[in-house]
Amino acid sequence: MNEDEKKLTTELKAAFAAQYGDEEGVRLFFAPGRVNLIGEHTDYNGGHVFPCALSIGTYAAARKRDDRKIRLFSMNGKSDSFEEFDLDDLEPAGKSGWTMYPLGVVWTFGLRGMLPETGFEMAIYGNIPNGSGLSSSASLEVLTGFVLKNLYGFDVDGVELAKIGQYSENNYNGMKCGIMDQFASAMGKKDHAIFLDTADLTYEYAPVKLDGMKLVIANSRVKHQLTDSGYNDRRRTCEEALEDLKKVTGISALGELTPEKYEELKGAIRDDDHRRKAKHAVYENDRTIRAIKALKAGDIEGFGKLMNESHVSLRDDYDVSCPEVDVLAETAWTIPGVMGARITGGGFGGCTVAIVRDESIERYIEVLGRTYKEKTGLEAEFYTVTPGDGPAEL
Q1: The CATH number of the domain where 70 resides is what?
Q2: Could you list the residue range(s) of the whole structural domain that residue 69 is in?
Q3: Is residue 59 part of a domain?
Q4: Total domains, the chain
Q5: Is residue 362 part of a domain?
Q6: 68 within domain boundaries
Q7: Any idea what DSSP says for residue 199?
Q8: Is position 181 annotated as part of the catalytic site?
Q9: Is residue 129 situated within a structural domain?
Q10: Of the listed 181, 244, 317, 326, which one is catalytic?
Q11: Measuring CA to CA, which residue among 132, 171, 110, 81 is closest to residue 351?
């Protein structure tokens, strides 16, 4: 652990002891957030994604109990952010708030025949900015699964942890997300991104070699209200477009179409809005495949252009950007030394990710921060990041 992690985990153990009486037998765990470099809203359409885990994420101090109680406490919440539950009453009815993420994972473990024999108590702290689109929820889900795996000896690998996290968010929290966020958190590898085919979960690690450049995240600090409903609406729209296409072709997912084939068949989609949403899913999948080829060839300029195209498509065809994030992306495109910039995550607010030359980072942050404040009245936050590893016991 570096010095920041040592300080953070010391504070977490102290908070655990204050909440639960002592820190005897406590164990420390971490699971990362993620940033997606390209391939947005393709994961539930059977397409490709290209995320990487981050060195920021969610930390937990946890230990087993002798009874059937689950006790959860968050350092990120108010003083009353402690709740207690029963292992024999995990159904989602009547539950709400942040605790639904860890409870949903425990519930899903139970559905898979891995309900813990005793309860546990856990204190968490996350250093992912709230509502930033960097997957704090997936980080907490993967973290909880990793805690259960290690406290109780359950035989689950990283891919299974990702599946459990996605299932719990879909069915316990009602958020119909794809698997990208959980997969990136559970399977992260330092200095690599993950080229994942969500149709069959085949994947490869690709070194992120940005010689003389860095990934810079700009947080709009905006999260619009329609995040969950808007996300689920987009998924439903794509499913309805797919049903129209199935009448004229044998595909089972939009990710199976090339742009050329989509253009040939798009007339089968009866609704104009559905047609635009399907177009994004198909073209974004193609952009992601081309982007990994560009990265492998060392063509960062080409990779950056595909990032820019991705943002335009998410803004104009998929309708998941917002004015504040558009200011961040469109201003970034005008700043020398920026190779590419795009919205990242589910949308409706959150962050952009950019590739910026080292010598331009200071000016990038200064110009973008000033312009964003002038146009929106808001203060952006900036993080220079590198791809990190998956979950770990500390």
Answers
A1: 3.30.230.10
A2: 3-207
A3: yes
A4: 1
A5: no
A6: yes
A7: T
A8: yes
A9: yes
A10: 181
A11: 132
Tokens coding 264 = 């040939």
Place of tokens 């292992």: 87
Instruction: Enter the pTM of the model.
Output: 0.91
Question: Nearest CA to 331 among 295, 363, 359?
Answer: 363
**What does the alpha-carbon distance between residue 88 and residue 369 come to, in Å, rounded to a whole number?**
50
Beta strands at 192-197 and 202-207: parallel, antiparallel or unpaired: antiparallel
pLDDT by residue (tens digit) across 210-261? 989 999 999 999 986 655 778 899 999 999 999 999 999 999 999 999 999 9
Residues of the chain with pLDDT under 70: 78-80, 224-227
d(CA 360, CA 356): 7
Single-letter amino acid code for the residue at 78 = K
The chain-wide mean pLDDT, for the chain, equals 94
CA 150 to CA 73: how far, in whole Å? Answer: 19
Q: What is the DSSP string of 313-375?
A: HHHHTS----HHHHHHHHHHTTSTTEEEEEEESS-SEEEEEEEEEGGGHHHHHHHHHHHHHHH
Residue with the two structure tokens 């929290």: 173
Can you read off the two tokens belonging to residue 220? Answer: 């709009």
